[in-house]
Fold each of these.
Amino acid sequence: MTAIPMEHGLLVAAVLFMLGLIGLLVRRNIIFMLLSIEIMLNAAGLAFVVAGARWAQVEGQIMFMFILAMAAAEVAVGLALVLLMYRKFKTLDSDQVSRMRG
Amino acid sequence: MFNLLWLVPAIPYFSFVILAVFGKRMPRSLSGLLGVGSVGISAVISVLIGIQFMSSPPAGDFFMQKLWTWMGVGNFQPEIAFHLDALSLLMMLVVTVVGFLIHLYSWEFMEDDEGFSRFFAYMNLFVGSMLTLVLANNLVLLYLGWEGVGLCSYLLIGFWYKDSENGAAARKAFIVTRVGDTAMAIGLFLLFWNLGTLDIQEILNSASMQWETGSGLALAVGLLLLGGAVGKSAQLPLQVWLPDAMAGPSPVSALIHAATMVTAGVYLIARTHVIFDLAPIAQTVVAIVGAATLLIAGFSALKQHDIKRVLAYSTISQIGYMFLALGVGAYSAAMFHFMTHAFFKALLFLGAGALIMCLHHEHNMFKMGGMRKQLPLTFWTFLIGSGALAAVPLITAGFYSKDLILWRAWTSDSGSPILWLAGIVGAFITAVYTFRMVFVTFFGKAKMQANHRPGARISLPLVVLAVLALIGGFVEMPHTLGHFAPFSKFMHSVLPEVHGAHLSISIELLFQIIAVVITLTGILTAYIFYYRKPELAENMAKSGFGSALGRFFYSGWGFDWFYYKFIVGPFVWIARVNKKDIIDFIYTIMAMICQIFNFVFRQTQNGRIRFYAAGIAFGAVIIVAIVMFT
């Protein structure tokens, strides 16, 4: 089995990242925004794994583990915030809750 | 006994604090007792110290009491210390004794005033500050007292503050004297910078050793100190505040604006006489200022109709005589005139105050008339005071002191016939305006009815001061009258003797006869114009030239007009034009720039999460681009 060239892997990661970013910027629904962030995190993770495979080092995959853990924590906190937001404002539109209060 | 010296200023200060803190809750009798009693105790202690000083003088003819070091910055170590010598003893005695009499008088005079305890608080603070001024052993402490009396002067001129005119008069006095004080402060800096000390005795010693006669530095210091003296003593060109200062209660005019504070300038020059001896030009300026002031103020007094303003101008004029004496080097003559002037001018102001009080607060003497019968005690004491002011020969104190000054004005080495001529013309005018006041107020037909007679606490000071105004001159008799001169002998431990030609007694007698004739002519003139034939004076005042001259004199030679036109007016104009402060503009611009940035950046804080995310992404792109292309 021939190894996938690193450039391809990185390209996929970049495309994924851009998709996530665009999703974050264009969607107003806060849950979709959280999903987009997840995609961006996975893109970064993919880039680490590809790089680790290229140099045959294990750190790439270890880093992905960290990202995974962090993503889980982020989702836990993020979903809790989303829940609170919905209770308070009765909406999931992030632009609707733009007023800052002290 | 000398060790009690510190109590003399301390007791009035203490009483001031008590009155200022508890005065409102005190019964009137208690605040009166405290206010008058504190100065009374001071006076008793001063007299006891004075007796001891004269009977058994301390070593070196001075006594120094150091209380503590005020502050220590490098070699700048002013002390709270009192220096008692013949000069400060004289000042201390006059301030406390005359001050006590005036306080006693005020007790009755201010009885019904709502600010009774406030009045005594200010008066006690004044006495304390004045004593600090005269007893100070260094110029910084002297300056403290100097500013203290200025403050009290301001507070007491504006004592009836509900009338805004009084407030304006108080501000005028404060600001005009501040001009002189600034000059004096610069003089002190110059002294310290050059001699490294502000201790008066050290300054006098080292100045005479280090500076040459006629050196520029001595001249500069002399003129700057003269500036301070001119402001405080209401001499040309800063005399404009004193006539307006009469807005205060009459005892204030007597104590501060006649007997004590306004002579602080005379004291300052006498105290630092070594500097003036080293700067003959400055000394000549002192004499010229004195001569010019005594004439200008004398002429102004001729046309006033407010009795207190007549007295105010006469005060300016008499202090002019003192400056004249200082300027010709006759320091003890100046101090002698200071002493007699304190007696008779305090007497005159108190008499005028009694008149004003008994006549429903009427100040215009042309509305009084004929008070001789209604208020006999006031009349006789006022007459004695006027006699002393006009220098009626032989029996009054004013004659001896003024005669001495006139004699020295010509015969002293730095004197000249012109100065003498100014003095003798001034003496004539003094006699005219003084007896104009007496004839208009006390003689002729009564135009008002006195509503009550002064009580004991007003009468007693009047009588005591009248006695002093009569006998106060006998401590210094001229050669023609036996040359009994303990006063100048006493003063010569501090002040130098006059350098001048020794002339024969017959010449001195001639001078005295001229002075006497001039005075009597002046009184006669006043008698003719204001008693015998008042229509003569009226006709003269009605003629075109006469009325113009009258208005000119009435306005005090237009000094107020001049200052308003050329100093106050432009100043107010600049203030109005520059209301938005051109220098402040720089700072306003800086603040405006900050506000613009604030406005721009505030737009970015809109709370839209997607906008923030876009910002982060955009920033990341830029950073990556920078990393890649550099």
Note: Residues 164-195 of chain B form the longest helix (32 residues).
Amino acid sequence: MNVLIDKFDVFAGGFWLTLQICVLAAIGALILGAVVAVLRISPVPPLRAVGTTYVNIFRNMPLTVVLFFAAFGLPALGSNADFLRIPGLDAIFSRLGTDLPYFRFGLIALVLYTAAFVCEALRSGVNAVPAGQAEAARSLGLTFGQNLRYVVLPQSWKASVVPLGSVIIAMIKNSALVGFFGVVGDLSQTADQLTSAGGYAFIPVAIGISVGYLIMTVPLGALLDRIEKRQAVAR
Amino acid sequence: MTTGDPLIVLDGVNKWFGPLHVLDDVSLSVGRGEVVVVIGPSGSGKSTLCRTINRLEPIDNGTITFDGQPLPAEGKPLAKLRSEVGMVFQSFNLFAHKTILENVTLGPVKVRKEKPAAARERGLALLDRVGIANQADKYPAQLSGGQQQRAAIARALAMQPKAMLFDEPTSALDPEMVGEVLDVMTSLARDGMTMVVVTHEMGFARHAANRVVFMADGQLVEDAPPNEFFANPRSERAKDFLSKILTH
């Protein structure tokens, strides 16, 4: 078990890198997922078709395959995902700006994949708002955008927040895959480094990285439980 | 009572819900200031008829014109038309996350771009008119059904509509609250508002309507002044319907 103390800095570094990719991927997935959700509930059929196609592709494909496409497909197309080298942001999230593109590729794959689930969580919240609310808004002459902004979304949020949290927790766990697609030094790849290269016993290392993931996911789950209880009281 | 061109004209309107022919060649015109009460057995298409007038239900064929213009299909023109037609629903449909006053001012502020202070002042006056000014800062769930429905009427009136549609406004209310809503509707009718009212309240039809329209199986069967309709229904179906509801 000495590895947990001797190599604490390696675990901490892995934790920090995984936290970085998760924060960025969560922000990206929430934004993209919201856009796709608006497409899916839009009154314009071609926009709905685009949203539905997106969800069908990324919800139904294994994340591993999405990661393969990102890590091998994007370079084949000549892209290093340099658009993610966002000045300022790469000062905090240093891997965004490195020449090695694998952090950016992993981020893209996580965002694309998770956005499909974010979209569906948001949409389930919208569906939980009684149809009469949107009907009343339409009958007052509110446009589709005003209807969403002032009537539907403020009410759907309550029903969305718990499933959204579950999606983000799943995303944190899914991020363990990026270590096998070229992202050096995240929490899961740390295990690989310490056991195969460093020769440490597997079980203590596995316990170490498990604790790392639990530190991220358990408080998030507890927060969701609290929100749910508060809502139950409000109802 | 009726002056100039009719405000609402339905001509040869048909609508199907799958195989169900819910509106069967319906033609109806409503003059300015006229109060038309639509009655009929459940499933006769009267609610659907009411909802086609602001295109909450699109029709399959036929034409509907409002104030001389055919109903727009979608988008901004349709939103504008809806802002000129007030609608009151059976289940009130007040915005649950907004106070009563916010419910009443949302349309004027966001659709008509009125100044919030002016909209608020008029909103309070309307709430006073329907008798719930003291509830302005409560949320819908804190009000009784009758109060909620009166708030919903005030919300529709805040848009200063050219006509008001009522889709069974008292059907979800406890009996002792029906009167307070009908009183508001009766006073609106007296003030000359053009109204299409789907209802089972025969008393309201008798004393407030200019015309009673009887529907059955998606067809418009009779169209007559109330005293004529209630004293002498011409069709068998209307006689049958009235005998069922008036014997209790």
Note: Chain A has one domain: 2-234.
Amino acid sequence: MSNNEQTNSHSHFPWSHLIGFGLSIFLTLLALWVGFASDFSLRTIMIIVVILALIQAAIQLLMFMHITESDSSRIQVGTILYAVFIAVAVVAGTIWVMSFGMHNMNM
Amino acid sequence: MKLDEFFVTGDPLIYGADVSIALTLIGAIFALTYFKKWKWLWTEWLTTVDHKKLGIMYIIAAVLMLFRGGVDAMLMRAQLTVPDAGFLDANHYNEIFTTHGTIMIIFMAMPFLIGLINVVVPLQIGARDVAYPFLNAVSFWTFFMGAMLFNISFVIGGSPSAGWTSYVPLAGLELSPSVGQNYYLLGLQIAGIGTLLTGINFLVTILKMRVPTMKLMHMPMFTWSSLITMVIIIFAFPVLTVALALMTFDRLFGSHFFTMMDGGMPMLWANLFWIWGHPEVYIVILPAFGMFSEIISTFARKTLFGYKAMVYSMVVIAGLSFLVWVHHFFTMGAGGAVNSFFSITTMLIAVPTGVKIFNWLFTLYKGRIRFTTPMLWSLAFIPNFVIGGVTGVMLAMAAADYQYHNTYFLVAHFHYVLISGTVYACFAGLHFWYPKMFNHRLNERLGKWTFWIFVAGFNLCFFPMYFLGLAGMPRRVYTYGAADGWMNLNVLATMGGVLMGIGFLILVYNIYYSFRYSPRETTGDPWDARTLEWSTPAPVPHYNFAHLPESKGHDAFWIMKQERKQGKTQEKKPYKPIHMPSYSGVPIVMSVFFFIAGFGMVFSWHWMSILGLIGVLATMVIRSFDYDKGFYVSVEEIEEDQKRTTL
């Protein structure tokens, strides 16, 4: 079964790879420009860079990792959402736990 | 470094351990040489990628670690029996409770469960091996070498002594300057590689290697619980890996992640440790739940009550397990909002767990119960675990926790959930699946002796500790005064501990006795059980199934047996050659290099760790260029096997 899939994906020109590759380079350069050459405030720069990073992550998943193409795409999306949930719980939770109430201490 | 700093000296107990380790090693080497078993050991066991053999090795390692952790426990009980005892000094006591906790959780409970998962899960889903057999061997050997690295600490260099939680700053370089803490960091790091690989391996195995006819919602409950456990492992263990790496940097290379000075954040260690640590307790309890489900269903002779509720409650537990970690350090004082939030999520977990308890009770209801040894363990689990759970809800109340925190109340609570949950399950599962592993049952009479003595001892040991905690006895103290009035309950606890030790010894004797005298299995289904692993013949052939079995619903093997009784006979299909993976010596060699690298890092001998890591890399390269695609089991061999079995 996996052999068939491979031959299919190799039979035509990999346009999606090429577009994804181009977009990734473009987004990276854009992020660099925003970071080094633009006049936005630091806060805005951070927001823009994070948004660009998220877009690029989505491109990676769609163009290179074929998230929608397999018959188990629902499971894949579920897994990613669960991973995002854990990541947010861990990171946001840690920041909340480690900073909340700390103003009560002499730090 | 001088030799007397390298070896731990000065304590008669340690000298005793030195002698016994040396004698055991010499004895083992002598026996292997005398009986000419070296080649057999290498070709049959050390290089194996067979999930059944790896599972057995996991379980042997876990029983050895149970012995080691149990001896630690007995030493602690000996010290605490009477006030002002001088049996152990403070530092030695600290080392012992640290190694007891670490070994019991990481090197006993986890490998015992993973061992049973290894043996049982592929058989339950009708698979011939796991998805990545080579990786499975790497998992075992990295776990084993990590465990050995941790265990040699008490004779070479000194044990860690900052508790199994290793809170900084106590575990930091200033307050724990000895190499003991490094052993903890590196031992857990190396063993953690194995656990993470197991998580990935079994997730893929369960999702992709099931017989095509088995739907997700028809999987046996033990397989379901293993699947959820693997998901938790995959998401929780990276946190431990990172936390251990950061503390290793702090201790070995002078970074300041968790230090008191230079912007370090000591409480961040506790935070990261418990982000892993709380899911970890579900990693060790969910497979236990799965086992009890199988055993209760088998010996009540009923399909499991509330199958879907069981599955969904485990999914909810898996999600919630990542949202409760702060309840381990309410007293840090993060504030009312944080503590309230985590207090509520913690209490919420009791809901799906309660659902499971009722499901087991309803499975028992009107069942024709057979009181076999595995069933006895499962029945004792329910009331004991409820005691542990209810006191857990008491601890979950943040305001009240300020009273219970770090007292024996907590010690009693987590021993009640971990022993009556995980350890009972390990014993129940061992008795239940023993015939699948060793082709004979454990003796029932001795098994029941073990059960009654151990369960009585357990309750005698830990129930008084609730009251010791309420009377104010703090955990992790090496002694107490006569005026504290804690002696009577401590004496009771020690008596209970001794009974548990006796129960364990009877179990070990039972293994020997049954090996000698138990009748060998002929049917492969000694318990009249329900799931597919029991459809394999005795002994289980190394390729598990000559024909892939068919799964027609819950309790697939039970359905098969009903159909057979109704006279439906399966048509004889011709055998086909079966593709199996080749054995490989690479995993054990790679793990030995991990051990060398870890040992070098413990002592900051960087030449040694670099050599070890080069070795690891080299074995990876060798593996990458290994084009061995496995081999085919011939039809003749399969026919030969099938003739020998009566099924």
Note: The first strand of chain B starts at residue 578 and ends at 580.
